[in-house]
């Protein structure tokens, strides 16, 4: 089976910022690269907040997240890696020659010398509203993420949730929606203090400790919501209110899932994989980058994902060829960019 498959130097699992930057950097190291992403689009968890402004990536002035994703994808494609979407990597088999076959949920196989797991916290799914029949409204006005703010203009929006993201969305929607109602099952919100204070003093309608008890709709659209007071034990009480709404947004968090990778024999924590200084795991040839990596000084930031990715690629390169340089030559003096620089028509002055 393996013989017919094309052999890659490195297969990167996960198309978030860590995986995307690894796909670029492995090109700098002249490695034949494949990237496999479970979702049908690249960007990882950045896809959760496409409209937010990102300020904390070095050298990048404030940028809308969706634009940064676009730039990361463009950069990842510099050395033309093979990119596979909509395949969740599930299985691993080591061949006698030390190379590996990874399989995916679609039944496809991939042959590789090394692996970089850039899984984030696994394949993420929104925690669903636990009400029978709620899913039928997902095609219309029951949303689990805010992707296009304009869609909320002039609408009466009810948002259920109390974490950072819920508070952020409520604040962003305030100036666009006709009204914003926030329902949270705890008395206190978990978001940044300053934002919570702003929200509490704003014109938003805040209901705590309340939770959605019932959705009222006709056809496939929600028209009103019954919320119920939550008691100290977390149970819904008989104290209810009925609210007319145009759109309901649920932000009850995300649930990650590493899937069958947990059975590969990797040393694993619940949400991460311990690594050494080269991002190597306990399984030879398997490296980790980004939020999946567990080491004492780990930065759970986009910027941290980039450093991890370069380290993991260098680790993979040295695993394949122990005589290789410990890191790539810097891009300003890397022959791989000579032709590309010419193509960019960089003038002497710019260069
Ligand atoms: C709301 C929010 C706001 C944030 N704001 C900022 C910010 O302003 N600045 C900042 O620096 N950071 C921010 N972060 C954190 C940042 O998004 C993460 O640190 C970053 O996305 C981690 O990148 P990653 O590539 O390690 O993982 P992820 O972005 O989680 O990407 C992992 C990818 O791997 C895929 N995957 C998982 N398992 C498999 C599998 N078995 N097979 C195939 N594919 C798989 C997933 O589908 C996913 O696409 C924010 C995070 C959130 C949730």
Automatic annotation (TrEMBL):
Taxonomic lineage: Bacteria, Bacillati, Bacillota, Bacilli, Bacillales
Pfam family name, one: Pyr_redox_2
Enzyme class: oxidoreductase
Record-given protein name: Ferredoxin--NADP reductase
Gene Ontology MF terms in the entry: ferredoxin-NADP+ reductase activity; flavin adenine dinucleotide binding; NADP binding
EC number(s) given by UniProt: 1.18.1.2
FAD/NAD(P)-binding domain span: 8-301
Keyword Oxidoreductase: yes
Catalytic reaction annotation: 2 reduced [2Fe-2S]-[ferredoxin] + NADP(+) + H(+) = 2 oxidized [2Fe-2S]-[ferredoxin] + NADPH
Protein family (similarity comment): Belongs to the ferredoxin--NADP reductase type 2 family.
Cofactor names: FAD
